[in-house]
Structures are given as C-alpha cells and as structure tokens.
Amino acid sequence: xxxxxxxxxxxxxxxxxxxxxxxxxxxxxxxxxxxxxxxxxxxxxxxxxxxxxxxxxxxxxxxxxxxxxxxxxxxxxxxxxxxxxxxxxxxxxxxxxxxxxxxxxxxxxxxxxxxxxxxxxxxxxxxxxxxxxxxxxxxxxxxxxxxxxxxxxxxxxxxxxxxxxxxxxxxxxxxxxxxxxxxxxxxxxxxxxxxxxxxxxxxxxxxxxxxxxxxxxxxxxxxxxxxxxxxxxxxxxxxxxxxxxxxxxxxxxxxxxxxxxxxxxxxxxxxxxxxxxxxxxxxxxxxxxxxxxxxxxxxxxxxxxxxxxxxxxxxxxxxxxxxxxxxxxxxxxxxxxxxxxxxxxxxxxxxxxxxxxxxx
Length: 360
Description:
It is a single chain. The N and C termini lie far apart (93 Å). The chain is flat and about 100 Å long. With 360 residues, it is of the alpha+beta class. A five-stranded mixed β-sheet has the order 3-2-1-4-5. A four-stranded mixed β-sheet has the order 6-7-8-9, covered by helices on one side.
C-alpha cells in the first residue's frame, strides 16, 4: 500500500508526487480511520502469530482471542524486502517473515506460554528439524530456539491477514498438523519401569490406600498429577505442570540431546539449555544433569577468561629506593662449591648484580 511513498524516500530518488503516491496516501489515511480496531494485549491469554511473504514485502500480525471468544488483532507489522532479500528462495522469504514477526512481537512472546505461528508455506513445519540447513537458516534457527512455539500450516485462502501481501494459490487446503516427537511416547512407555513413580501414581489414584512413600515423596505428593498417561510435576503453585521424565538414564540423555544437540538447538550454554528443557520436562536434580551434559559437549567452548590489563611499574623517586632480588639455583658448581646466584636489580638506574651464593 505504501510502496509509492517509500520509493520517494530512497537515496537519490527524484521527488515527484504522482497520482499513485496520492492514492497511497489517501488509502493509508482511510485505513487508520476504519476497522479493524486493534485490541489491547492481555498477557494472561495465549497469543498466536500469522506471517507471510511476497516477492517484494513481508508481513505479520499478532492475534489473541478475547474473553468473548473472538479473535482480535493486537498488532500489524510489515516492511519491504531489501535488494538482497528479494533474491532469497521462497522458503527463505517465508522463514524471514517468521523471524521478522518474532523480532517485532518479542516483548509479548519471549518467555510466554507456548504459542502458535500460522504460515501458508507447508514446509516450514519441518524446517526446525531438517538436516539440510544453509548457514543463513542455521543462524535464524538458533534465534528461534529462544521462543516456545509450534508452526501450523494455514492455506493462503484462510491466512487472509498476513496473506494480504501475497496470495498463494498453489497450495491446496490441508488440515492443521502439530509437530510431534517420538520422545513423548518413549517417556510414556518408560513409566512402567519406574517403581518410584508407580508408587506415586498409586497414592494419587487411591488416597485412602496405604502406600509406602518416603517423607520427601509424601510432602510433594500434591504437586504430582496424571493426565493422558503422562505424569506431571508442578514446581511452584503458579507454574505450568511439566512432564516427569522417569528414572531412565538413556531417556534423560535423549531429552538433553534434543534440547542441546539438534540443529534447532544450536549447542547452547548451560543456562539456556536448562531453560529450554525446563519448559516442558522435570526430574530430580535436572540442573546437575544439564551442567554435566553441557560440560562434556565438544562443541561448547568455555568463555575465555579475561586477562589482567598490562600495567607499568611505579617509578621510584631516588636511586636505590627500589631494589628487586631473586635466586637462581641448580647451576654447575664453581671451585668454591657455589651452585646459585643472587640476582639484584635497581629499578631507577637499571643496575644489575649477580653475586654467587649457596643454598645454606
């Protein structure tokens, strides 16, 4: 819409107020005066994002369902593509639109509950797990790892907000799909071999039954729950319950592997890896597990320690005011049996002396 106006702002552009510029100006004024009216964000409700890209621009919108169940727009954002970005393949343009949305809505999405990003490019659903990544995509995926989101496919005819920039008729209507991992099914199956969790589940299902539990387990019994075959643990009263990973060393290492070693994870450090794991999972002493796992990673290099800055020695006011001394031993003995020397140095006059000495 604003393209004729933004072209006038380019460097060395000839100023010419054409009829197209006037129409764009009037269209922008009309848009600001008419619906849709933006809604105020409610941080207690989940957000969703729609994004899309065309040959010359990218756009996105932040959405939220209000108390009456209506989907409201919180913010619109769009910009033209730079000259180099116009040469990107379609897949990278769509991924760029997703990155642009996360940057613009960072204040609302970072650290929030899981949210959904809708796109009309079906291949983006598997972009985070693809083994074939360009350097540009790898950099973007490391940025995506800071957010807790899933990608869902919405055809262009349904993605009317972000698709105002480009309609994609080459995609057929498809059902919504969620990214799933076999890790969750492995966790569910491993519960059968964990005796400690079996006792907790029995105590939860039959409160009046006498079950042998440790004092620590009994004091934390109210924090556990069972939903659809998964055991959940709530660390604090206001936190979301997390899936309990059973006492299986290989399975816990699998969780850490997916949070740290996969292409989308980017071999993050200890704190970021722990934050990523703690979003969905919990087991006792999990932080120690993460710390040990990251320390053994060959690709995670410790931050170099800062060396002390070089400093000049103080200059003495008079001769012989400052004298340095040191011993050197294990030298060949002379005729009198001396095997060492005493090194003397006067700072101001640059005098040095080496009298012979012995260890006694």
